[in-house]
């Protein structure tokens, strides 16, 4: 029997449709045609991208040359530009603003591979350090109010390049989705005197129905009101509202649980397309101490059609309890590539 489920954070209901249900093994491997054109993100092709903003590279190597293992460059076709002047205009009932912001591309490995799941745990750790470093640097521009880190994997999820990469877009506005989460967290804190995300973590650990992986500092689980089949969140057990607060031991732990989660998802459904977003507190405005940063992994196995677009309600044909059980049971066997120059990895 189908069931309406309410997200405990935002005012959003989801239909868990067991009537049209799909079990985990009903999702076939998603075959994608491999791209054959020259990859601008591979080592040795540095001149095909805009000049790098930063990189973790071997001592003595020069910018925009080989020797790097994580590299950040401006997006070649940016949605927003940091050089824009801040200017607001109004015409009748319509309001507009210059395209101020930042759009960066994080090349997550010098190897030509499609995802983080085939990287070493140390390499994933390095990517997380870059996310943090760019987040802390960009917030120095007081015009920026939110820094969105996200990753698209597979053409269905919007990735135009196969080479593993994530992106960062900094905006002068707080996104609507994040604003709804902030409001939900604020209202819950005013009623209960506690963090809704912390209470979710406590209940998920106690019940274990939707837990995928648990580590010392993080929990990976399928949300109660999952919008998508195998939607998985990774959240710190400790209350932290700002991703920039993450500590060194937490970065190591996050690298492990993120890689494990992605490997389980990718092993269970080969070539699975997904979007991953990091939701964190806004910057350069009041502190949102009741918020709780987290990663959301959203596989793209269903299509939003007329009902979803017209109503805003999601229909998920795979209950999160079933999805979590399947992911827990999935062995994360994967061939890994070991770096030859691990001794020059970044440390703080």
TrEMBL record:
<keyword id="KW-0119">Carbohydrate metabolism</keyword>
<dbReference type="InterPro" id="IPR001937">
    <property type="entry name" value="GalP_UDPtransf1"/>
</dbReference>
<feature type="binding site">
    <location>
        <position position="42"/>
    </location>
    <ligand>
        <name>Zn(2+)</name>
    </ligand>
</feature>
<keyword id="KW-0299">Galactose metabolism</keyword>
<dbReference type="Pfam" id="PF01087">
    <property type="entry name" value="GalP_UDP_transf"/>
</dbReference>
<comment type="similarity">
    <text>Belongs to the galactose-1-phosphate uridylyltransferase type 1 family.</text>
</comment>
<keyword id="KW-0808">Transferase</keyword>
<feature type="binding site">
    <location>
        <position position="163"/>
    </location>
    <ligand>
        <name>Zn(2+)</name>
    </ligand>
</feature>
<dbReference type="InterPro" id="IPR036265">
    <property type="entry name" value="HIT-like_sf"/>
</dbReference>
<keyword id="KW-0862">Zinc</keyword>
<dbReference type="GO" id="GO:0008270">
    <property type="term" value="F:zinc ion binding"/>
</dbReference>
<feature type="active site" description="Tele-UMP-histidine intermediate">
    <location>
        <position position="165"/>
    </location>
</feature>
<feature type="binding site">
    <location>
        <position position="112"/>
    </location>
    <ligand>
        <name>Zn(2+)</name>
    </ligand>
</feature>
<keyword id="KW-0548">Nucleotidyltransferase</keyword>
<dbReference type="Pfam" id="PF02744">
    <property type="entry name" value="GalP_UDP_tr_C"/>
</dbReference>
<dbReference type="GO" id="GO:0006012">
    <property type="term" value="P:galactose metabolic process"/>
</dbReference>
<feature type="domain" description="Galactose-1-phosphate uridyl transferase C-terminal">
    <location>
        <begin position="185"/>
        <end position="297"/>
    </location>
</feature>
<dbReference type="GO" id="GO:0008108">
    <property type="term" value="F:UDP-glucose:hexose-1-phosphate uridylyltransferase activity"/>
</dbReference>
<keyword id="KW-0479">Metal-binding</keyword>
<dbReference type="InterPro" id="IPR005850">
    <property type="entry name" value="GalP_Utransf_C"/>
</dbReference>
<feature type="binding site">
    <location>
        <position position="39"/>
    </location>
    <ligand>
        <name>Zn(2+)</name>
    </ligand>
</feature>
<feature type="domain" description="Galactose-1-phosphate uridyl transferase N-terminal">
    <location>
        <begin position="4"/>
        <end position="175"/>
    </location>
</feature>
<dbReference type="InterPro" id="IPR005849">
    <property type="entry name" value="GalP_Utransf_N"/>
</dbReference>
<protein>
    <recommendedName>
        <fullName>Galactose-1-phosphate uridylyltransferase</fullName>
        <ecNumber>2.7.7.12</ecNumber>
    </recommendedName>
</protein>
<dbReference type="InterPro" id="IPR053177">
    <property type="entry name" value="ADP-glucose_phosphorylase"/>
</dbReference>
């Amino acid at each position: 029997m189908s069931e309406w489920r309410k997200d405990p954070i935002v005012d959003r209901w989801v239909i868990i449709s067991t009537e049209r249900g799909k079990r985990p093994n009903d999702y076939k491997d998603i075959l994608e045609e491999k791209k054959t054109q020259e990859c601008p993100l591979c080592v040795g092709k540095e001149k095909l991208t805009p000049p790098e903003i930063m990189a973790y590279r071997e001592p003595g190597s020069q910018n925009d040359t080989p020797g790097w293992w994580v590299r950040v460059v401006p997006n070649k076709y940016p949605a927003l530009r940091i050089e824009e002047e801040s200017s607001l205009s109004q015409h009748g009932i319509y309001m507009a603003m210059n395209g101020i912001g930042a759009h960066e591309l994080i090349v997550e490995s010098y190897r030509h591979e499609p995802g983080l799941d085939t990287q070493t745990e140390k390499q994933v750790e390095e990517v997380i350090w870059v996310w943090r470093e760019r987040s802390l640097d960009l917030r120095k521009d007081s015009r920026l109010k939110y820094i969105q880190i996200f990753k698209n994997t597979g053409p269905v999820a919007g990735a135009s390049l196969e080479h593993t990469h994530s992106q960062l877009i900094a905006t002068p506005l707080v996104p609507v989705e994040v604003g709804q989460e902030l409001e939900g967290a604020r209202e819950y804190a005013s009623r209960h005197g506690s963090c809704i995300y912390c209470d979710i973590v406590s209940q998920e650990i106690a019940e274990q129905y939707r837990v995928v992986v648990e580590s010392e500092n993080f929990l990976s689980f399928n949300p109660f009101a999952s919008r998508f089949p195998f939607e998985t969140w990774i959240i710190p057990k400790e209350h932290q509202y700002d991703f920039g607060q993450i500590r060194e031991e937490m970065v190591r732990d996050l690298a492990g649980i993120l890689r494990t989660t992605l490997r389980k998802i990718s092993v269970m459904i080969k070539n699975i397309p997904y979007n991953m977003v990091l939701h964190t507190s806004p910057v350069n405005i009041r502190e949102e101490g009741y918020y709780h940063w987290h990663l959301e992994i959203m596989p793209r196995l269903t299509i939003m059609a007329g009902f979803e677009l017209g109503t805003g309600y999601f229909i998920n044909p795979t209950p999160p309890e079933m999805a979590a059980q399947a992911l827990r049971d999935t062995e994360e066997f994967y061939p890994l590539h070991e770096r030859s120059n691990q001794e020059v990895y970044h440390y703080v």
